[in-house]
Structures are given as structure tokens and as C-alpha cells.
Specification:
Blueprint: E1 20-24, H1 30-42, E2 58-62, H2 73-76, E3 79-82, E4 89-92, H3 94-101, H4 112-119, H5 126-131, E5 135-137, E6 151-152
Parallel strand pairs: 1-2, 1-6, 2-5
Antiparallel strand pairs: 3-4
Helix pairs in contact: 1-4
Length: 159
């Protein structure tokens, strides 16, 4: 038997097939929803996963304003950021970030709360910064990506 015919195929950027996926965030818990989003963005749900290649799908999240947090986390949890200057440590609550998402000066598809949560679940390198651009989050049920024919998925069935 010729052992040279069994070669391991590793995916590269040209051989990856990317799809568009729509996720409805209505009555979903934020952390559980974002962990599934990070899994799909990274491509770990595909058989052709490779950790050094951007092989995940493009994710569109709709109804992001209807996501929920259990307990008092919406007002009590604090996310820290640092400006780089002395005394520049800032704290934000999920409630503040949710209000900021309704600001009309923010780029469409950019949701500060989802960006903060999902970014923490991705690799902290160039690949992670590139992967996060494949996520688009909208507060209402409308999104401008109907031309890509995104397929709706139920995140409760993804493990």
C-alpha cells in the first residue's frame, strides 16, 4: 500500500468556504449566545477547522436589544478599559454599552456590548482582530445582508 497517497489536507485562505449565518438573539442569555457566536466565527463547528486560518462564517445577529442577562448583571457588572493616561481607567456597565448601541453616530452593525463580550472569547492576536470584523449586530429585526442569502440557525441546537 502506498502511504504517500494519504496526505493530510490543511485548509488555507483560498480553500475555505465561508457562509452567512443569521442568529436571532431574542430571549437568549448574553454569555451563552456569544460563546456560540465565537465558535461560529472561529470555524470550530466545521470539519475543516484550522487554528491559524480564518475559516469561520460571517455572523449577523438580529434583535440584539432583546438579549437578557440574569440577575442584576445588567447594572452591577463592570467592564474596565484604560485610556493609557494616569487616572484613565474607565468602567462601563452592560446597560451603558446597550444604550450606546442605539446612538446613531455609531457605525451600523457595531454593537459595543457584543464586541466586548465576543472579543474576549477570540484569540488575542491579528487573527482575532480580523475575525471580529465578520460579526454584524443589529438591534432590530432588519439587516442589510439579504443579498448574501444568510441561513438562519437555532443556537439552542449547536453544541
Amino acid at each position: 500500500m502506498d502511504t504517500l497517497s494519504y496526505k493530510t489536507l490543511t485548509p488555507n485562505a483560498q480553500s475555505v468556504e465561508k457562509e452567512w449565518v443569521v442568529i436571532d438573539a431574542t430571549d437568549q442569555t448574553l454569555g451563552r449566545l456569544c460563546s456560540v457566536i465565537a465558535l461560529i466565527l472561529r470555524g470550530k463547528n466545521k470539519p475543516s477547522y484550522s487554528p491559524n486560518v480564518e475559516c469561520g462564517d460571517n455572523v449577523v445577529v438580529i434583535n440584539a436589544d432583546k438579549v437578557k442577562l440574569t440577575g442584576n448583571k445588567m447594572t452591577d457588572r463592570e467592564y474596565l478599559s484604560f485610556t493609557g493616561y494616569p487616572g484613565g481607567q474607565r468602567t462601563r456597565t452592560p446597560e451603558d454599552l446597550m444604550k450606546k448601541s442605539f446612538n446613531k453616530h455609531i457605525k451600523p452593525g457595531y454593537h459595543p456590548l457584543f464586541i466586548k463580550v465576543v472579543k474576549g472569547m477570540l484569540p488575542k492576536n491579528r487573527l482575532g482582530r480580523k475575525i471580529i470584523e465578520n460579526m454584524h449586530v443589529y438591534n432590530g429585526p432588519e439587516h442589510p445582508f439579504a443579498g448574501q442569502n444568510p441561513k438562519p440557525i437555532d443556537i439552542n441546537k449547536i453544541k
